Amino acid sequence: PLFFVVFLQGSQFLYSTYGFTLLSAVVERVSGQKFTDYMLKMFRDLDMLSTVLDDNEAMIYNRARCYVYNKKGRLANAPYVDNSYKWAGGGFLSSVGDLLKFGNALLYSYQAGQLKTTNGKLLPGYLKPDTVAMMWTPVPKTEVSWDRDGKYAMAWAVVEKKQQYGCCRQQRHYASHTGGAVGASSVLLILPEELGSEATDAGLVAPPRGVIVSIICNMQSVSLNSTALKIAREFDKEKRAQ
């Protein structure tokens, strides 16, 4: 195989679908299972029963038709594509409900570690809190194209909490990722609620706490991150007002 160096390590960032294909090989080696078997078992654990392999030949209930704009700017059916060569990089079909379950599981795992007093009543998260925190730790010089405030972390774009001046622009901490395929676009955005020390110390709250937005569109090349962020902020504003 041939390998090409785009730029020096730690100097710039380039998203690669094939990077996820390489990761799937790592998962297979570590788990001793086929990547697809490993993932489908995980989806079942997460109760994501509508998330399946994007197999063209299989009959998949409620599978959506996908669309693109042709050279004349008119709506057309998306061309045939076989995603089996990149299961990890875009080879699964899912639903808005399943993506919300996925987001809730991550947010629960992330916030469970912030609660100091639960009296053993809180079930553990699917992932360790430190694992999610590591996944959501942005790497310098990895600005993402879909949000100028965001940097790339471990398969997530992350915006860190920041406010430089009083009564001015406030940056809320959130994690998101967009998805693009032939004839489809998507986004999953997780906006964690900022838990106060009084609530976390006394165990007065139970995770997940925050706003999760999932959008799936059967149209290619639709930018959805900014829309998802606006929706999340509106719901967050309503929760704060209550």
From TrEMBL:
Taxonomic superkingdom: Eukaryota
GO cellular component assignments: mitochondrion
Matches recorded under Gene3D superfamilies: DD-peptidase/beta-lactamase superfamily
Pfam families: Beta-lactamase (PF00144)
Gene Ontology terms for molecular function: peptidase activity
Residues covered by the Beta-lactamase-related domain: 9-218
Regions annotated as coiled coil: none
GO biological process: proteolysis; regulation of lipid metabolic process
Protein name: LACTB protein
Organism for this UniProt entry: Psophia crepitans
Gene, per the UniProt record: Lactb
